[in-house]
Write a sequence for this structure.
């Protein structure tokens, strides 16, 4: 999980991807670019994890900020809001 968190945070993800692509069977040494499918996994995970989920998180924060701003102005008339803006 920590490795996927680092990849989602875009911290040293190329190093982790290269190491995962060099994996072989259990109790065997690494072989250069042995499993290229792991590289596809990292690219897809970055696109979904970083871009989509990060935009979703920012959208939720923006929605909560808008709700808080609306609650802050509740009970004021238009004339009062004009004076607050000044």
């Amino acid at each position: 999980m920590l490795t996927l968190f680092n990849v989602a945070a875009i911290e040293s993800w190329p190093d982790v991807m290269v190491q995962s692509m060099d994996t072989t069977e259990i109790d065997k040494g690494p072989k250069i670019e042995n499993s290229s499918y792991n590289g596809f996994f990292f690219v897809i995970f970055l696109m979904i994890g970083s871009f989509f989920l990060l935009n979703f998180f920012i959208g939720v924060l923006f929605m909560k900020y808008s709700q808080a701003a609306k609650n802050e102005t509740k009970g004021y008339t238009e004339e009062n809001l004009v004076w607050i803006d000044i």
